[in-house]
Structure prediction request, 80 residues.
Amino acid sequence: MSSSPRPARHDFRVLTRTRGGYGGGVLYDVQLQVAATGALVWAQTFTDQAQADEFQERVEDDLALDGPEFRRRHSVPSTT
Prediction:
């Protein structure tokens, strides 16, 4: 049996939602969700798709971190 903490990807997932913005613009919401329930932990909004994609990739890569380290890095409360 391993004593190492499990990766954060067991508890969280990252999604990007696209929605209409002001003046016909497009907004990209990168969301961190609780994997088991889909509850929203936080969202970061971007007007530039490339920036949103880059941020999403960074958070997805960090899902390989153990849970406590991921929570510290991404300001996820321990009660989530």
In short: The CA atoms of residues 7 and 26 lie 33 Å apart. Residues 49-62 form the longest helix (14 residues). The chain has a mean pLDDT of 92.
